[in-house]
Design brief:
It is built from 14 helices and 9 strands. Strand 1, helix 1 (15-24) and strand 2 (28-32) form a beta-alpha-beta unit. It is of the alpha/beta class.
């Protein structure tokens, strides 16, 4: 099977870059209608077609890419009235780039197979900047033959494609990855807050941390908040981070494996969300912690 036309559901911060690069490499692209018009219209200007319904999108596509918030949205797209499985499009390959719960991925893969479709998990790493540049990292859970069929499409927007095993394993790896990165962010935010309380020079702190064994990508991103009032280096909302950490602890509980550190990190993001930072980017953990410590932040 040769993929010629791709359907995309979720042309947001990450999905826009995915769609843009698919078009740039000569594939046909159909996007699902959405109330957020700016990214849709941008893709239309680059040659994409807009579909008014999932039924229309599925009918036009050889492959479907999902790039939505999480499991509830993926399940609604797949299982809901008028959803993907209701269209009975034999041979359709569905690649889920969302961060979702592995047990749901297994359920959806089985349901897709029963309808002569293939569902695989292809979650992403990196940021919207890399999405726009076509340099995302992808984990792929599914059989090798399916991966080779869709690799030309995935390569349009990624420069790292890592097979993780059977379907569902990519979402497991993704949740472990996000537990680590979001924990690093929470620890970095606390360290930066302590440094601010102690009147430590932030440039010196950055140079010491990033030049030694404590360096992390997240520290390098979060230090830009006290230095430049810039939270754009990690464009991922605190509410989405809270969701991903809960998915991780759900997964560990089902194993079962104790994940008490993850529970503590999760509650840090719950606190930030309840204090009104849910739609802010993860670096604003620094702002939240500084306010709680009585330190006047650069911005509210």
């Amino acid at each position: 099977m040769t993929i010629k036309t791709i359907g995309l559901i979720g042309a947001g911060l990450m999905g826009h870059g995915i769609g843009k690069n698919i078009l740039a490499k000569g594939f046909k692209l159909h996007v699902l209608v959405h109330k957020n018009r700016a990214p849709i219209e941008s893709l239309q200007a680059a040659g994409a077609s807009e579909s008014a319904s999932i039924a229309d999108l599925v009918k036009a596509s050889d492959m479907l890419i999902l790039c939505v918030t999480g499991t509830p949205q993926v399940e609604e797209i797949m299982l809901g009235t008028g959803g993907v499985l209701a269209q009975a499009k034999r041979g359709l390959i569905i690649a889920d780039c969302s961060t979702a719960e592995p047990h749901s991925t297994l359920k959806l893969a089985a349901a897709a197979l029963a309808n002569a479709m293939t569902f695989i998990d292809t979650p992403m790493t990196r940021t919207p900047k890399e999405a726009e540049a076509g340099k995302l990292g992808l984990m792929v859970g599914g059989d090798a033959a399916t991966l080779e069929t869709i690799r030309p499409v995935l390569s349009c927007f990624s420069d790292l494609i890592v097979p993780t095993g059977a379907v569902g394993t990519a979402h497991q790896v993704k949740l472990i990855n996000n537990f680590l990165s979001l924990s690093h962010a929470a620890i970095a935010a606390e360290a930066i807050t302590v440094a601010a309380k102690a009147n430590v020079n932030m440039e010196a702190l950055r140079d010491v941390i990033m030049g030694g064994g404590a360096a992390s990508a997240m520290f390098g991103r979060l230090i830009n908040v006290p230095l430049h009032d810039d939270d754009s280096h990690a464009k991922f909302t605190i509410r989405n981070a809270r969701k991903d950490l809960r998915y991780y602890t759900n997964m560990t509980e089902q194993m079962p494996v104790a994940s008490y550190l993850a529970e503590q990190v999760h509650q840090t993001y719950v606190l930030a969300d309840t204090l009104g930072y849910g739609e802010r980017y993860v670096p604003r953990l620094v702002t939240m912690m500084m306010k709680n410590a009585g330190i006047k932040p650069r911005t509210t």
